[in-house]
Amino acid sequence: MKKFLVLCLALMMSVVMAGCGGSSSGSSGGSGSGAPSKGVKIGVSMPTKSLQRWNQDGANMMSKLKEKGYDVDLQFAENKVESQVSQIENMITKGCKVIVVGAIDGGSLSSVLDEAKSAGVKVIAYDRLIMNTDAVNYYATFDNYGVGQIQGQYIEQKLGLKEGKGPFNLEIATGPMDDNNAVFFFKGAMDVLQPYVDKGQLVVRSGQVTREQCATPNWDEAKAQERMDNLLTTNYASAKLDAVLCSNDSVSLGVQSALKSAGYNTADKPMPVITGQDANLPNVKAIISGEQSMSVFKDTRALADQVVKMVDALLSGKEPEVNDTKTYNNGVKIVPSYLLKPQFVDKDNYKQLLIDSGYYKEADLQK
Question: Which of 51, 167, 179, 304 is an S-S bond match for 60, by CB 3.0 to 4.6 Å?
Fold first, then answer.
C-alpha cells in the first residue's frame, strides 16, 4: 500500500510539473522569444495594388508578421484617401494594437490617426512620412535623399559631367506634390545636377526645373507619358534629349513610351540616360534591353524586417531601434526614423543584386 501511495504521489507531481511547463510556454505568446505576438492584431494599410512594389511590400509585411504569430489585417486602398481612412477606422474598431501605414496622401490622415492615438493604438509610417500629426510614433523607410543622390550621380557619371563634358539636354519627371518622399528624391538628385545646370553643362530646354513643374500626380505612368509627349513635341523636334531624371519606375515607363513614340530606341537615336526607382519587373526588363539605364533598388524584405522589429519592441514596452532623430519633421514633430540604405541596379549588376539574392527568379525576367 505504501509503494502504491508513493507511486500515485509521484504521478501527481509529474502532472503538476507538466502543467506548469505548459503554462510558462503559453505565456510567451508562442514565439519562443517572450514577444506578446500570438493573436495580437496588427493592421497594415497599403496605398494601392496598381504598383508592383506595394503588392510586394504588403506581401512581405503579411508574411513576416504572421511568422511572429500576429493576426494581420492587410488592406489596400487603391489610391483613394477616403478608402484608406475608412480602412484604418475599421482596424481601430477591430482592436489592432499597431497599425502600419503606407500613406496615399501623408497630409490627409491626421484626424483618423488622432482616433488611433485616443484608442491607444501605435502608428508606424511605412516608407511615406505621415504629416501634420503627433499620432505617428515611428517612421521606417529608405534614405530618400540618398535615393535622389544615387540617381543624380548616375547621370553625372554616365554623361562624364565631372570631366567637364557637355552640354547635354536634360528633362526631369518627379513624383506627386502630396508625397513627402518626392521632396527628398528631388532635392537629393538636384543637389548633384543643379551645379551642372548652372554651368551650362546640362540644359533643360523646357525650362521646367521646379518640383511643381516636374510633378507627376499619383506617380501615374499615363500622365508621365502625356507630359513627356508634350515636352518632346515642343522642345525636341530638332534636338536630342540626352538624359531624363525620373524619380520612380512607373514615371520612367511613361517617359520611355513617349520617347519610343518620338523615334528613340533605334540605332540612329538611342534612348537617353533614364533613371528609376523600385526595380519593378517591367523596369528591370527594360534595363536588360537597354530602354532604361538604372533603377534604385530598395529591398522591401529588409524594410519589412525592420518594421516587424519595431512592432515587437512597441508591444514589449521597449523603444524601437532608430538611426535618425533629426531629418523627418512632419510639421508637428520630428518623427524617430529608421533609414535603410538603397542601391542602384543596372545592366552590369542586376543578376548579383536581384537574382542571386532571391528577390527575383531568372524566369521572372524572361516572361
Answer: 304
The span from the CA of 240 to the CA of 322, in Å, is: 46
Q: Which of 243, 245, 238 is nearest to 211 (CA)?
A: 245
> pLDDT tens for residues 106-133?
899 999 999 999 999 999 999 999 999 9
Per-residue model confidence as pLDDT tens digits over 237-287 = 999 999 999 999 999 999 999 999 999 999 999 999 999 999 999 999 999
Residue 17 has pLDDT above 80, yes or no: no
Ranges of H-type helices in the chain: 2-27, 52-67, 81-93, 110-118, 144-159, 180-199, 211-214, 221-235, 249-261, 281-289, 300-315, 350
- The pLDDT mean for the chain works out to 90
In a domain, residue 253? The reply is yes
Q: 256: helix, coil or strand?
A: helix
Q: Do 148 and 95 belong to one domain?
A: no
Ranges 2-6, 99-103, 135-139, 190-194: which has the least confidence: 2-6
265 located within any domain: yes
What residues contact residue 287 under an 8 Å CB cut-off, 6+ apart?
Answer: 293, 294, 295, 345, 346, 347, 350
Specify the DSSP element, H or E, that contains 204.
Answer: none
What domain range includes position 281?
144-298
Query: ∠ at Cα 199 (150, 270), nearest 5°?
Result: 55
Cα angle 142, 143, 144; round to 5:
95
**Minimal CA–CA distance to 44: which of 77, 15, 11?**
77
Helix axes 221-235, 249-261, angle to 10 degrees: 40
Residues 125 and 149 both lie in one domain: no
- Strands 294-297 and 343-346 turn out to be antiparallel
Which pLDDT does position 367 carry in this prediction?
66
Domain count, the chain: 2
Whole-structure pTM over 0.70, yes or no? yes
Same domain, 186 and 320: no
Q: CB 296: neighbour CB atoms within 10 A?
A: 26
